[in-house]
């Protein structure tokens, strides 16, 4: 089986090149990550300043908001949403697995040609522009 080279991220998956529904690019992804991690850091200041508390709060933010709002607060602020490849609701268990892999970092920084990290590929999701 051979694959034709894609012209842009999301081309092979049937997503548009740009605009709503296009695959999220690095700048927006990193911006959302900083917003969510910053929120976790600020919230942890009310309880404890250790790294474990920050990661636990970050994970809670992801796990609560991904299935309910189709994205974390950071995703929503920068104009992104998380969806299954077929466009459906991500469900309840996929955000848990995706978050664990995101916290491990390595799966999140290994991408395919469609700019989907291993954490998204593992659960069959894609981060797109709203």
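^ structure tokens above, recovered residues below v
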């Amino acid at each position: 089986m051979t694959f034709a080279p894609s012209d842009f991220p999301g081309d092979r998956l049937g997503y548009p090149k740009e605009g709503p529904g296009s695959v999220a690019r690095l700048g927006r992804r990193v911006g959302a990550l900083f917003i969510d991690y910053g929120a976790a850091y600020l919230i942890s200041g009310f309880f404890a300043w250790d790294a474990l508390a920050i990661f636990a709060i970050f994970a809670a933010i992801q796990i609560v908001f991904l299935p309910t709002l189709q994205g974390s607060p950071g995703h929503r602020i920068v104009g992104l949403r998380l969806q299954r490849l077929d466009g459906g609701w991500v469900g309840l268990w996929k955000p848990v697995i995706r978050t664990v892999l995101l916290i491990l970092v390595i799966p999140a920084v290994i991408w395919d040609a469609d700019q989907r990290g291993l954490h998204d590929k593992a659960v069959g999701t894609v981060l797109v522009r709203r």
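The chain has one domain: 26-129.
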